Structures are given as C-alpha cells and as structure tokens.
Amino acid sequence: MIVRRGKGDLNKIYRPCKISEVVGNETIKRIINKALENNTLPHALLFTGPSGCGKTTFARLIALGLNCIEGVSGEPCCQCASCIAILNLNSFAVIESDAGRTGDVATTRKILEDLPSAPMGGERYKVAIFDEAHKLGGNSGSEDALLKFLEDTPEHVYIILCTNEPQKLKEVTRNRCKITQFGRLQDDDVCKLLEQVCQFEGFDYKIEILQYISEEANGVPRAALGYLQQIAAEESWTKDAASVVITAGIDIDYVEVYDFCRLIIKERNFQSTVKAYSKIKKIPIEIIRMAVCGFFVGCLKRANNLKEAQQFSEIIDITSQPYFNNPKPEHILMNSLFKITQILRRTN
Ligand SMILES: [Zn+2]
After folding, report:
1. What is the ipTM of this complex?
2. pLDDT band of 347, cuts 50, 70, 90
3. Residues near 171 by Cβ (< 8 Å), separated by ≥ 6?
C-alpha cells in the first residue's frame, strides 16, 4: 500500500520508505524482507535489471531497514533520526555514488577507505550504494579496488551495486555478490499505483487515461507518475491531450531508437540497419532492446491485417527477453536486427 509523505512532486511524496510500499517485484520483496528479519542479508549485493525498475530505491530501503533505531526490518519507522537522515540523503552511514559520474579510481578508493570505520551518527551499518556500477569496470582500476574490498567486507558494511549492464563487470566481481534480478512492472501494476495516487490526491481521473499512461511508461513508475503529475496539472484527461504531454516528455534515447526502428521498417535491409545502428551505439544495449520491443508492440496494436500482426509478433518474441545475461549482448542484438530485417522482408 502506498503512503503519502511530505510536500513536493508526486514522485517525491509517494516514494516508498518501507518494502511493503513498493509496487511489484513481489518475490524480491519477500526474500529481502526475510533476510533482514533473520539477519542473513549478504554483505555484497548486485542488483540488475532495466533502468527505472526500482534497483536504487530498493538499495535505499535496505539502508533504512538496516539502520532504523526501532530495529532491523523491512518496515523501518521512517520517523527516527536515522531514518530521517537517510531519507534526506544526509546520513553519514549511507554513501551513494553514481559511478557514471564519480566512478574514477581516486573517488572509489576514498569511499572504500572510509567504510571500515564505524558510522559516525551511531547507526549500526554503513551501506555503500554504487549506481551505474558497470562504469566501475574498464581500465580505471576502480573495479579492482572494489574487488579487493569485497574479499574481506567488514561485518558492519554492506555494498550494493546497481546496474543494467552487469556483463560489463568482471565475472569474479559478479561471483562475489548475491545477484538479484529486478523486472519491469506490469502495466496493470503501474495502473493500480496511478489509481491509488489519484484517489489520494482527489484527482478527477479517467481510468482509460491511466491505462494509457501505464502503457506509455514502459513499466517505469517514475515516468508514469511524472506524466500523471503533468496531465493532472493541465487537466488533460482526454487521450489526445495526454498523448501531447507524454510525447513531449518521452526519453530522448527512446526517440532516437524509435527513429532507428522506422528506418528498419522503411529499408528492410540489414546493411543499412547496421549503418544506422552505428549512430545509436552510444545508447546502452538494454535500452535499445526495450525501445525496439516497445516500438513493435505499438506496431502490433496498429497492425492492418493478420499477416502483419504475425510479423510484428515474431519481432517482439526476439526482443522481449533481456540480453544482459549473455556475455556478448551486442552479438545477440546484431543477430536480432538481422532476423528483424528478414521477417519484415517477407511482405515484399
Ligand atoms: Zn526508523
């Protein structure tokens, strides 16, 4: 059940503070709750899964649950000094690093060197959360420093690595961690969340618009709440008005991949697809895969006939599973793109 706290935008006031307030990922919630209660949570965790599916949120909930003055649990009080410091992002016990920006070896070493000392504010545990943890990989030496630390993690320290590209970390790093794979939320779950928020806020909502937002948000509650906020503010409770809000706010990476998909459909040629791919190569493969899949789901919904629908359905089959458990995701993507062009050629 969601809870409203404080003031600000919808994403802030409905941010979960207890595991029971998280929507979706039910199995993970059960396992982590139990591990916290039984004091069996592994000290090195690797959270994988697509962007926006709640990895970092969950990492923060663990930090709260470990340090709440009321006792270790998945249901921290969210009111004690420790909880409030963590929620306000100014606790000495929780170190959050965005490895995409500060993953250099000097910063990483500094974070790790500080961990063995006891927390300053009287908290029980230090929790270091590395977002975009795959950026620690490569030649910078950051991953090696981390690896050394993971060999002998102090009892009062928990390390949580969050990434949508775990294959970019060394196998030995992954092996030292307990891996938890998060999934995207179902559209229905996102829709239920939106409906609860609307009821709390007293919005004069329309359920079909909430369903539309949920589909467009691609299983990312943060995106869905962002759209809802704007639609409610502008009272855009028609599909046309809502689509204007959503199109304006859509992720720039997705726009580029959608253009790429349109080109694939137009050209139906593998060589030109490969050429076009080189222009979007900087976008993470998992984002490309999800955007391609989402694009063809849209095509399927608008298919003119059964034959077309069958083709789009085959493309969705190829792109609906994450590639990141495969050691060479780019090879799988290339192969998928080849198959997509072949499937599309069949109309000619
Ligand atoms: Zn507390």
Report:
1. 0.99
2. low
3. none
